[in-house]
Please model this.
Amino acid sequence: MAGFPKNFLWGGASAANQCEGGIFEGGRGLANVDVCPSGADRGAVITGYRKMLQMDEGHHYPAAEAVDFYHRFREDIRLLGGMGLQVYRMSIAWTRIFPKGDEEEPNEEGLRFYEEVFRECRKNGIRPLVTICHFDCPVYLIEKYGGWRNRKMIGFYLRLCRTLFERYKDYVTHWLTFNEINMILHAPFMGAGLCFEEGEDEEAVKYQAAHHELVASALATKLAHEINPANQIGCMFAAGSAYPYSCRPEDVWEALLMNQENYFFVDVQSRGYYPSYAVKRLEKRGVFPQMEPEDVEILKKHTVDFVSFSYYNSRCIAASGDQETAEGNLFQSAKNPYLQFSEWGWPIDPLGFRITLNEVYDRYQKPLFVVENGLGATDRPDGDGRIEDDYRISYLREHIRAMKAAVEEDGVDLMGYTSWAPIDLISAGTGEMKKRYGFIYVDKQEDGSGTLERIKKKSFHWYQRVIETNGEEL
Ligand code: BG6
Model:
């Protein structure tokens, strides 16, 4: 078979907290993602070292307005339909449905909002792929229960899942339980509502919270299949193979450890049990999570149907030495001397994408879905307001070529590709607006000014053609 399969799904991906805004509307409650400020304090807040559970005057909170998808979703989805998008990956803001998180009954206004979004998608020939939790956790659940460190979260999350699976049965069949579940290790407040107390063993808290998410994910998979046998459930992790800095066995060993740390979550979600390397290491460090007797069976029985991931860059690691470091999708690593870097210092490595696709497929032997990939860059409209983003086209072209080789030549079973993000939105890592990923420009500037007008970039027309030709014309 040459090229992508006929039923390959082309699309784009976003997250509620990075595009919706309208955080005080429709009865919505406050979430961890709302109280992550932009600027110098963001790092300490998203990693859980600085506790910020409400907004204060001295900070700017970019999620509050974001790019106003909450009010403009019809126009936005029409634009996406015009680009030929077949699938739109989006997330549900938990606090629109359960404003505090532990209510018995959902908020009807929130449910209606997403119903309208799904209707609009359908009108435009777009199928939704829904992330149930893209980093959000109601602030109330953090204050009252401590976020995912508390096992009670499983029940609250499942109530949300049941509500969504039942209500949107006619609109959605493809779901992701948690966005980048491994991000809990790197940005634990943003990823799971964890704030650390003085003297506490952070590793123990993170792995306990991760265990709760893993059980919740398995039970959500069970529930989804019961409610609608047509439901397909995926896990989602931040991927990007770790390379050894050299062929020194010590460097190779470090890379193996780094990869295992990253694959740990999917090993559980896809294979159904804690891998032996994790059991040994977590026990040795005294941070093996507390489990209930039924957990082993739950994890084993309800593994995911497909494995999805984000890929922005590969990583690189040495056992020792003072190598320069490189940024990346919330992970730092050694700077790979063979690669080019984005404006934000992230390595650009299309072959690394093919390597990652092969590694993940070899490991799990389940269909894969690439649900994030893209280039964050500053776009500068020219005198006529046009945005000629050839740098973005070139990044995506090379990555899609690598993905095509993985499918065509290596036999990787790939369901689809949703680039991050079809419409400019705010950055998760930095909270900046100027770090843009879209095919569609949003007139909103770093200082909050702008008309919010949507403008098609050059890449819009390029991606439209990619979709039309099923990836033949790049
Ligand atoms: C992933 C997240 O980590 O990478 C997205 O799932 C995020 O939410 C994306 O936006 C790109 O990262 P950033 O920091 O450039 O927004």
